Amino acid sequence: MKEIDVEQIEKTIGYTFAKKELLHSALTHSSFTNEHIGYESYERLEYIGDSVISLIVANYLFNRFPYANQGFLSKIRSIIISEKCLSEVIEKLGLDKYLRISETLTSISPRLKGDIFESIAGAIFIDSNDINKAAEFILINLKNKLNAEYNVDNITDYKSALFEYAAKNGMKLSICTEKINDLPPKFKSTISLEGYNSSIGEGNSKKKAEQEAAKALIIRDNILN
Is 118 a catalytic residue? Predict the structure, then answer.
């Protein structure tokens, strides 16, 4: 039977369990419990861990991208909490070697490794009764993905986002829009934000031209990331 080095695992994840049995359960697959009486699998902890991770990551992205819409935030969250990302963390931490599974299973799939991350997060939350403790484990181990550069092309109102950004940071912002063609109508907008080079946008309406100019500035200089 595979032994679980509780002290080493706690050192690796940065959390000491009051109820050591939770850590044991977090690393026990149902195939193992089917063959050994008296053990509990990680399924319940995985269930709660999945929800905790989703909430923590959603909150982090909500604050990191204050101008992004729901679609963008949901897409990035799905990337960060994907099976691939979570399994990579478990491999890096070397925790997959502690998973107790049936001897009939010859390998540990990425899905199972992802389950381990979720079950450990759930175990920390249940043991501590403190979501901040679970958040520490989650944010530290997902920091590279959480802080990676993502395209903010899903913002729907670039002009408002830019005005809010300028106001929040005490920066001067000016917009100059002119009609450059009558038929068909065409407008040209120039936006200047303190500390950045001006950007230009064109469109068949004043509103469209200003949105395009704001979008160009935001994306070119990666302003809202």
Answer: yes
